[in-house]
Amino acid sequence: MIDNHFTEIADLESLDRFVANLNGSAGVVFKHSDTCGVSSRAYTEMSKLELPIGIVVVQHARSVSDEVEKRWQVSHETPQVLIIKNGKSVWNASHFQVKADGVAAAVAKADSDQ
């Protein structure tokens, strides 16, 4: 089940649209596995945030997951969070490093950097 404040990214078009809709602000791409306990914990953490979050469920959107790895040169992990600003990955975390406060701080820093 996808929380209402997550934007599901199911194909390359929706990935491009999510990034374009950030309009220069920082946003979050969250790669999630719906069969992994660690990813379930990360999902709970991400649900605490009131930020633009695009979620890629890797079981349903493997091509998007592959594109995220290729486009932003970040080795595939799940769960994984990338902070995207101006089309670039400016921060990432995976597994037990995915915590709401860390993601919020990284987004705030990215938005304050010009």
Account of the protein in words:
The chain is α/β, with parallel strands linked by helices and 114 residues long. The protein has a single domain (6-112), classed as Glutaredoxin. Helix content is 39%, strand content 24%. The protein contains four helices and five strands; from the N terminus they run βαβαβαββα. It has helices spanning 12-21, 37-47, 62-72, 100-112, and strands at residues 6-8, 27-32, 53-57, 80-85, 88-94. The chain has a five-stranded mixed β-sheet, sandwiched between helices. β2 (27-32), α2 (37-47) and β3 form a beta-alpha-beta unit. The longest helix has 13 residues, at 100-112. The protein starts with 5 loop residues before the first strand and ends with a helix.
Task: Characterize this entry briefly.
The chain is α/β, with parallel strands linked by helices and about 110 residues long. The chain has 4 helices and 5 strands.
Question: Topology of this structure?
Answer:
Blueprint lengths: L5 E3 L3 H10 L5 E6 L4 H11 L5 E5 L4 H11 L7 E6 L2 E7 L5 H13 L2
